[in-house]
Design brief:
CATH class of the largest domain: Alpha Beta
Strand content: 25-35%
Largest sheet: 8 strands, antiparallel
CATH architecture of the largest domain: 3-Layer(aba) Sandwich
Structural class: alpha+beta
Distance between the termini: 82 Å
Radius of gyration: 38 Å
CATH topology of the largest domain: Rossmann fold
Shape: elongated
Length: 636
C-alpha cells in the first residue's frame, strides 16, 4: 500500500470539508463548534483507499483568522486540492492559501470547482477561465480543473480517478530516513493516556521504540501506533499517524512539538535561510519581526538580512532568523513568514543551516559563500564547507545533526573526500565517536604544534620538552583528544617531534647550558653530595648560585630529571650517592640484626635527626625497601 497525504486549500465556505466528506464518507469537522457554526476551525482528517493507494486527507480551515491552523496541517502534504466555489470564484483566502502552497514548494495538485450545482454552464465556464488565469505560471498550470458537487455527486468519480493518477506520480518515501513527526494534535484518551497525531514526514516508528520529544529533548516511549483509525505494528513515512506515549502527561505535549529519532538532532533558535517575499508583500526591513511557521510550529522571529538592508517584494535573499522559541528543523525544511501586524502571509523560504551561529559584520563575505555552498553544492562540497566552519573537526553524530543525513550517508561522503585527500577520519577511543577533519585544517594543526614546541624551546632552553597537555592547550585548546593524539603520532613518524613520557620535544633537541649555568649545576650537585643525609634546605642552596632564582629552579629540575638528585619530600632533596649508601646501610643492618627496624634504630644507624628520619623512612616505604607496621619498619 502506498501512502499519500492530500491537503485542501481554499476560501472559507467554499466546500472543502463537504468535498472531503463526499469523497471519504467521513466528516472532517470534529469539533462541536465547527458543526454549530458550519465552518472548519481546526484541522480535520479522513482517509480514502483507491486501489493500491491510501489517501490521507488533511482538511484545513479557510477563514483568515484560522490560517495559522491551516499552516499546521499543510506542511507534510504530497499534493493539494485547491478548492474554488463555483458561485464565488477566487477569493482572498484562495489567494493566500495558494501562495502558501507555492512557498512550501508543494509539487503537484488539482483544482476542484465545488458547488457546481449552484451555477449554470456559462457560469461554470467563467469560473474555469478565472482559475486558469489564476494558476498560470504555477505548479498547477495545465492540471485538470474538475467541477464537482458534494450535494449531487457530480464529478466525484472523475476526481477520484484524477487523484489516483496523481498519487501514483508521488515518489515513494524512504522509511529508512530519520523518523520525524510534527505534532498537530495532542489529547488524552481514557485507558490509554496521552495520544498525539501528525503526518509522518520521514522514517518509521513502531511500538516500544524510544523517541525524543522536541524542543524539550525528553525521551519518551511509544506504547502503541495507529494509522487511519486502526492499530498497526509500524507506521511509515507518508501516513497519518497516532502515537500513544508512555510516561508523559498531556500538559507536557502540544501542537508544534516534534517527535524524532533519539539522540540525532538538536533544537535551535537561530537559522540561516533563503527567504522569498511575495509580490503582494510590503518591503521587508532588516530586523523586522514576523510570525514564523514551520511544520506545526509557530513562533515570532527577527529577520536579519545578510545581503541588503531591505528586501523588495518578489525578491529573495539570504537571511538569519532569530526565533523567540526553539524549534526542531533540518536543512531543506520549508517555512512560511507572516507579517507581524496585520497578520498576513508575506513570504517563506528554505532552511540552509539549522544550527547557525551569530554572525559578525566582518564575517559576512565568508558566511554568504558558505550559505551559497549549502544551497547549491553537492554533498561533498557541503560536507567540506561545514568542516571548514569547524577547523577543530566534528564527530559523525554532530554532522548528522547539522545535515539531517543518515550515518551511512555521512560516512560515504566523508570516505569519498578522504580518498580525494580532502579530509581525515580519526577513530575515537572505545565508546567514543570518531572525528572528521579537513586535510588542510589538519595540516595547519601540524604546523601549529611544531611552532608551539619551537616557541617553548626558545622560551625554556633549560627544559627538555613541553608537557603534552600544556602543548594541547597552547596550540588548540578545543582540539579533540583523538585528533591531538593522531597529530603527535604523525609528527613523530615524520621525525619532527619526539615524545618521552609526558614531554614533547623537537626531534634532536638537547638542553645546552651556558658556562654560568654549568657552574651553577655543578655547585648544586656538590652542595648535596657533601651533605650526605643531612642536606641543607633547597632555598639555601639555590640562594648561593650566580644565576637568578628562575634559572636556578630549572637547573635543579635538570639534576632531578637526570636522577643525580632524588626528591624525598617537598622540602628535602638528596644526592643519589647518599641514597645508595643508605641502601647499603640497610642491607648490612638486616644481615646483622634481622629485618625489624624501629625508628630509634634507624636514627642511630644513619646519624640523622627526626627531621630527616621520618621523610627518609616514608621514601623507603614508597620505593619498596621497607614496609611500615604499627610499631616498626620491616626491611624488605
Amino acid at each position: 500500500m502506498k501512502y499519500v497525504i492530500v491537503g485542501t486549500a481554499g476560501h472559507i465556505d467554499h466546500g472543502k470539508s463537504k468535498l472531503v466528506e463526499a469523497l471519504t464518507g467521513t466528516d472532517p469537522d470534529r469539533l462541536a463548534e465547527e458543526k454549530r457554526r458550519g465552518i472548519t476551525i481546526d484541522l480535520g482528517f479522513a482517509f480514502l483507499d483507491l486501489e493500491e493507494v491510501r489517501l490521507g486527507f488533511v482538511d484545513v480551515p479557510g477563514h483568515e483568522r484560522f490560517v495559522k491552523n491551516m499552516l499546521a496541517g499543510v506542511g507534510g502534504i504530497d499534493l493539494v486540492l485547491l478548492v474554488v466555489a463555483a458561485d464565488e470564484s477566487i477569493k482572498p483566502q484562495t489567494r493566500e492559501h495558494f501562495d502558501i502552497c507555492r512557498l512550501l514548494n508543494i509539487p503537484r495538485g488539482l483544482v476542484v470547482i465545488t458547488k457546481a450545482d449552484l451555477v449554470d454552464a456559462d457560469g461554470l465556464d467563467l469560473v474555469r477561465l478565472e482559475v486558469e488565469d489564476f494558476v498560470r505560471g504555477s505548479f498547477l498550470e495545465g492540471t485538470p480543473i474538475l467541477a464537482t458537487s458534494a450535494k449531487t455527486g457530480v464529478g466525484l468519480d472523475r476526481l477520484k480517478q484524477a487523484l489516483l493518477q496523481l498519487a501514483r506520480q508521488v515518489p515513494a518515501k524512504d522509511p529508512t530516513q530519520h523518523f520525524r513527526l510534527p505534532i498537530d494534535r495532542a489529547f488524552a484518551q481514557k485507558g490509554f493516556g496521552t495520544v498525539v497525531t501528525g503526518t509522518l514526514l520521514s522514517g518509521s516508528v513502531q511500538a516500544e521504540e524510544e523517541v525524543e520529544l522536541f524542543p524539550s529533548q525528553r525521551r519518551v516511549r511509544i506504547r502503541g501506533v495507529q494509522s487511519a483509525g486502526r492499530k498497526v505494528e509500524r507506521a511509515i513515512a507518508g501516513q497519518r499517524t497516532a502515537l500513544n506515549l508512555a510516561g508523559v502527561e498531556l500538559n507536557e505535549v502540544q501542537r508544534g512539538m516534534v517527535l524524532a529519532a533519539p539522540g540525532r538532532f538538536r533544537p535551535t533558535d537561530r537559522l540561516d535561510v533563503r527567504v522569498r517575499l511575495l509580490e503582494s508583500a510590503r518591503p521587508l526591513k532588516n530586523r523586522a519581526l514576523v510570525h514564523f511557521h514551520q511544520g506545526t510550529a509557530e513562533t515570532v522571529a527577527e529577520v536579519v538580512l545578510l545581503e541588503e538592508p531591505q528586501l523588495a517584494p518578489g525578491a529573495s535573499a539570504l537571511a538569519q532568523l532569530r526565533l523567540q522559541a526553539p524549534v526542531l528543523v533540518l536543512p531543506g525544511d520549508r517555512f512560511i513568514l507572516r507579517q507581524f501586524s496585520p497578520v498576513v502571509t508575506i513570504g517563506g523560504g528554505v532552511v540552509l543551516d539549522a544550527l547557525a551561529p551569530r554572525h559578525r559584520q566582518r564575517e559576512l563575505p565568508q558566511v554568504l559563500e558558505f550559505l551559497q555552498t549549502l544551497e547549491r553544492g553537492d554533498r561533498e562540497q557541503i560536507l567540506a564547507a561545514i568542516l571548514r566552519q569547524h577547523p577543530e573537526g566534528l564527530t559523525v553524530p554532530e554532522l548528522i545533526a547539522r545535515t539531517g543525513w543518515l550515518e551511512r550517508e555521512v560516512r560515504q561522503v566523508a570516505a569519498a573526500l578522504e580518498r580525494a585527500a580532502g579530509l581525515h577520519m580519526f577513530a575515537g577511543a572505545a565508546g567514543e565517536d570518531g572525528v572528521v577533519l579537513l586535510a588542510d585544517a589538519f595540516a595547519a594543526l601540524l604546523r601549529r604544534l611544531l611552532a608551539t614546541v619551537e616557541q617553548f624551546h626558545r622560551q625554556n632552553p633549560l627544559l627538555p620538552g613541553i608537557p603534552r597537555e600544556d602543548l594541547r592547550s597552547r596550540a588548540a585548546a578545543s582540539l579533540r583528544t583523538e585528533v591531538f593524539r593522531a597529530a603527535l603520532e604523525m609528527l613523530c613518524r615524520r621525525g619532527e617531534l619526539t615524545v618521552a613520557g609526558d614531554l614533547v620535544a623537537r626531534a634532536g633537541h638537547e638542553v645546552t647550558l651556558s658556562t654560568e649555568e654549568a657552574q651553577a649545576k655543578e655547585q648544586i650537585e656538590r652542595a648535596f653530595a657533601r651533605a650526605g643525609l643531612t642536606v641543607p634546605a633547597v632555598t639555601e642552596v639555590l640562594g648561593r648560585l650566580p644565576v637568578e632564582p628562575k634559572r636556578a629552579q630549572k637547573i635543579l629540575q635538570i639534576l632531578l630529571r637526570e636522577q643525580v638528585l632524588v626528591k624525598v619530600s617537598e622540602e628535602l632533596i638528596f644526592h643519589r650517592e647518599a641514597i645508595a649508601r643508605l641502601r647499603a646501610l640497610l642491607a648490612d643492618y638486616k644481615a646483622k640484626n634481622g629485618e625489624q627496624l624501629p625508628v630509634p634504630a634507624f636514627k642511630e644507624l644513619t646519624g640523622v635527626s627526626r627531621k630527616y628520619a621520618i621523610p627518609l623512612l616514608e621514601y623507603l616505604d614508597r620505593t619498596g625497601l621497607t614496609r611500615r607496621t604499627p610499631t616498626h619498619r620491616v626491611i624488605l
